[in-house]
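User: My instructor asked us to take a sequence, write out its structure as C-alpha cells, and then describe one feature of it. I'm not sure where to start. Here is the sequence I was given:
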Amino acid sequence: MAITPNQEQFLQLAADSETNAGEVVMLNLLKYKREAGDGGGGSGEEAYARYAAQAVRMVEEQGGSVLWLGRPDQVLIGDPEADSWDAVALVRYPSRKHFIDMVSQPRYQEAHAHREGGLERTILLAMTPGQAPS
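Assistant: Let's start with the prediction itself. The C-alpha cells for your sequence are:
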C-alpha cells in the first residue's frame, strides 16, 4: 500500500484547492511497521513519532492543528483484519493550499523519511466540513 499520494491524487488535491479554498481536515489512518525502517532504530511507532515531532510544528506554522489523536479499540462494522489500524489522527489546516505548501517544503521532505520508515500502510482522507443533518 502507498505511503504517499500518487501524481494523479496530488494534482487532484491541487485542483480542488482552487475551487474549495476553505478549511480541510485530514483523517489519517495509521498502521505501524513492527520495526522502524528509517535508520533510527526501534519500532515503526517510534519512527512515526520522530516524524510527528517535526510535522506537528510545521502544521502549526501553517495555522493548522491536531484536533484528535487516538487508538482504535475495536472494529465494530467491517473486516477486523483489513480495517485494523494502530492510530487515527484528525489534523486541521486552514485550506488545502496550506497543506500543499507544508508538504512541499524541503524540511517536510526530510521528516517524511521517518513517516515512510514507520508506516506499514496508511489512508489519508481530505475532508470538507459540512452541516450536520437536522
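For the description part of your assignment, you could build on this observation: DSSP finds four helices and four strands in the chain. Try explaining in your own words what that tells you about the chain.
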